[in-house]
Amino acid sequence: MSYVNVTLVQLVASLGLMALAIVLSARDGLGLEKDMAIGTVRAAMQLFAVGLLLALLFQHEHPVAVLGLIAVMVMVAGWTAARRISYGPGTGVLFRYATLAVLVSGAVVLIPVFTFVIRPARWYEARLLVPISGMILSNGMNGVALVFERVFASVHDDAASVEQLLSLGATPQQAVERHTRAAVRAALRPTINALLTVGLVALPGMMTGQIVSGTAPGQAVRYQLVIMYQLVAVAVVAGAMAARFARALSFTPQKQLRSFDDRARPLGPPKA
Amino acid sequence: MPNILEAKGLRKHYDGRVLLDGVDIALERGSITTVGGPSGGGKTTLLRILGFLTEPESGRVLLDGTDVRTLSPEEVRRRVALVAQAPAMFEGTVLDNVRTGPRLQGKSLPEEEARRALERTGLDAQLLRNDARALSGGEKLRVALARALVLSPEAWLLDEPTAALDPERADLVVDLLRSLAAQGAPVLVVTHDERALKRLCGRCCTLAGGHLQADGRE
Fold it and tell me: Rounded to whole angstroms, how far apart are CA atoms A75 and A93?
């Protein structure tokens, strides 16, 4: 089997769909026209740039170049996860922890799979390493961002209960156990939902891509299953690490609850 | 008499304002101390520092002569009860709430002990099975007192404990605080309640402008 080429003219023709979306947005007053127009151009620029980079990488495949690109992906994932937090320690502090969580969770999931399951001809084969690492690191990044956001915000909102538990002799772990557990569960939910409904609602992107480009459906399914199991594992590891980091960052060395906005905290809920 | 809880030279500022400017306080065994003063004057901050929930910028807190920073924070907080004016209730029944402290240490508290603690605060023990979050403000305060009572703390810190109570219930809480002091635990109460002040018969202090001063009335 072979894949069907998309010519540049055909690609430009597909812009008609974006034009339709923009017209409908304007007509219904959604106010998304500008974002859609920018997104159309930006997505094209980003993907063409990545395409060029990948083509270059495939032509001059070298371990340093492949690992270098993956290292950049880890750093960008760490930065993105740290930057999304609305309440908590500064991005500079969170970046270190987010990057470490993305790196470790990615390594825990990717190394065994590339060693025992999907075994590339060369260990640094960019065609396999780069796209699969991208998917896995991205899921790790989302897990870290969700857990950070939720733990810091919910502990802050529930500071009175947390401090009441501390006052009764709770360790920080006991005092925020409910919050970290809820955050990890919430972070895992989208990945688990995807696992439960895969194939019933939609065919996943990677499998669709493989089938469209000529891979036998049976092989595409096997690849997709490996990826889905990796996505769950990376979300669990990244989420659990992020929860531990968030807990550690929420308390001082004297196990007192930190406030990140320097607001004076009352004893107990706000007084009526 | 030796001081069970003592603070020396506490300093703390917030938002450019000095809340505590070298505050010294000593709580002797069996004593009752009340602290009044303007709102936002640092009274709650003083309680938080003594209860080891906030660090002062300088100064130190001694528990039975030992600097609290050399002890485990969990131990200090179990030994010093801190009861907020509007205490947060944990999910579950009143019994679950009263059992929280022992549960955190991996111990179980017999229902009879929880019942006794609740009755000492003047709360009807029939409420044990009720949802703690559905209680009134005054009932929540007494559950918080019972929650701390079962840990047998060595010192008590209370923020406006009678503010949400009718005079009759407030008197019961005052009686409880007096009995705790009579058993040897020093009690520090932040309050503006004149009736409670009179009935507590404690040493009255005022915290204002960062300084804690004895009122001279008992």
Answer: 14
